[in-house]
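Entry 12.
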Amino acid sequence: MHDQAEDENFMLDKLKFVIFILVSSSDFKINNVLSIYYNRQSIEQFFDYIKNKIDILPLRTLSEETLAKHIFMSFLASIGFVRINKMLKIKNLSFNNSIDSLKRFNYKIFSSRIVLDVPTKKINDISKALKVKISKKTII
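Predicted 3D structure (tokens):
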């Protein structure tokens, strides 16, 4: 039977022989290479998150400014999603089911007013979880 401390020491000894190779066209100071590598990895994980989890459209931009604005808006959207999801989870509500319920919440638009249908229990639960009041009156 191996001692856990011996196993951990063995692993630490092996880690001394790990070699990182980073190929780049930029000139880096040797002391900064590892932190730059991990920053790059964080940026890639962020792009993966906004691309796959938030399901944003492909980034087809012509300028760095447009890309920066797109990423900023995606970041704001992800913050909103996380906050709304957290508020819904407190009340044991699913984000996707809540969105589907809200899509089915009916209203009628007239030239001078908007009339909302009577909210269902599910809609009332969602509005309470999100701390949004649904008016019982006609919206003008």
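Annotation: The first helix runs from residue 4 to 15. The helical segments are 4-15, 33-53, 64-90, 95-103, 121-129.
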